Amino acid sequence: MLLPIAKESGGSHMIFPLDCIPCFLRGALEAARFATSDVEMHAEVMQEALQVLTDNSDQPATVLGQRIHRRLRELTGIADPYLDAKRRFTTLAMALVPELRAELSRVEDPFAYAVRLAIAGNIIDLGANGNLSEVEVNLSLRRVLSEPFNGDLARFHRTLLVSERILYLADNAGEIVFDRLLIEQLPPGHVTVAVRGGPILNDATIADAAAAGLDQFATVIDNGSDAPGTILDDCSAAFRNVFNRADVIIAKGQGNYETLCRASANIFFLLKVKCPLVAAQTGLSIGTQALIASATGKRHPAEIAKISEVCKHSG
C-alpha cells in the first residue's frame, strides 16, 4: 500500500504534511492498545489507519484523525478507548484543585496565573503523548511560571471583562479541571463551555465536564462533532449558533488552533506548543505556553461598544 506523496511544487492532492504520518500511526497504535490487549487487533487497526490515510489524502489532519479513530472504535467495539485514562487524569487534577486555588489567592495577579495554569494543563494530551505520566503533569504545573510564555495577557483580560458572551472551547479531560480555575476568574454567568459531541482521543465530553464540576461554574454544551478540534461544518447547528453569537471565543489546544486559526471570529487560542509543525506555524518553540489572538478575527460589535463606553468614562 503506497501513500500519496506531496510534490515539492505544483498541484498536490495531499493537504496534510508528510510529517503527520508517523504521528497518525503512533496515535492509532496507542489508541488500539488503550482499547484492547489483542495484538492481532492492533495489527488490523494499523492496516485500517494506513487505508484511511491512503483514501483520504485530500483531507486535513483533524479529519484524518477523526476517521482513523471512528474506524478504531468500530473495529474494537469500544465506544471510548480512553475512558479509564480520562478518569485517571480527572481524578489527579481534581486532587490538585485545593492547593492551586489556595495559590491563586496568594499571587499578585490571579488572572495571569490562572491563564498559565490552564495552558500548563494542556499537557494532558494523549494524542500527542499516549504514555503521559502523572509525574509529567505535576512537573508541568510546578513549572507553570518558569516555562516560556508568549502572548498579550492584558489585552486578553480587557477583552474578557467587556464581553457578555464568552465561549470556551475545551480540549482534554483532566485539563478541563484547570480550565475551571480560569473560568472562576471570568464574569459570572457569561461563560459557555463547549466540549466534544462524542469520544475522540482523550478529549472532553459532557460526562467528563460534569466529572470535573464545570457545570457548577458555566453552561456546558457539546459541539455535536467527534473531531479532534472544531470543524465548524461538522458541528451541530445549535453549536454554530452559539459560536457565531459569541463576543469572544477561548479555544484550548492544538486541535482547536489547527481548525480555527483562519476562522473569522474573535478568538484567543490557549495552548502548549507540542508539535514541530505548530511550532513552525506559530514561530514559537516547543514547550512554550502560548496565548495567540486570531489574525483574521474581528471584534464583536458589542465588545467595541463596551470598550468605547469604558474609555469614555475613564477620561
How would you briefly describe this protein structure?
The chain is of the alpha/beta class and 315 residues long. It has helices at residues 20-35, 39-55, 61-76, 83-106, 110-120, 134-142, 153-161, 175-183, 206-211, 237-245, 253-260, 276-282, 301-313; strands spanning 149-150, 166-169, 191-195, 219-222, 248-252, 267-272, 289-293.
Descriptive report:
This protein folds into 2 domains: 20-76, Uncharacterised protein PF01937, DUF89, domain 1 (Helicase, Ruva Protein, domain 3); 83-304, Uncharacterised protein PF01937, DUF89, domain 3 (Rossmann fold, 3-Layer(aba) Sandwich), CATH 3.40.50.10880. 49% of the residues lie in helices and 10% in strands. It is built from 13 helices and 7 strands. The protein has helices at 20-35, 39-55, 61-76, 83-106, 110-120, 134-142, 153-161, 175-183, 206-211, 237-245, 253-260, 276-282, 301-313, and strands at residues 149-150, 166-169, 191-195, 219-222, 248-252, 267-272, 289-293. Strands 1-7-6-5-2-3-4 form a 7-stranded mixed β-sheet, sandwiched between helices. Helix 2 (39-55) runs antiparallel to helix 3 (61-76).
Regarding quaternary structure, how should these chains be classified?
single chain
The H-level CATH homologous superfamily of the largest domain, spelled out, is: Uncharacterised protein PF01937, DUF89, domain 3
Q: Architecture of the largest domain, CATH level 2?
A: 3-Layer(aba) Sandwich
Order of helices and strands: HHHHHHEHEHEHEHEHEHEH
What is the gyration radius calculated from CA atoms? 20 Å
Average predicted local confidence, pLDDT = 89
Q: Roughly what fraction of the amino acids lie in strands?
A: 5-15%
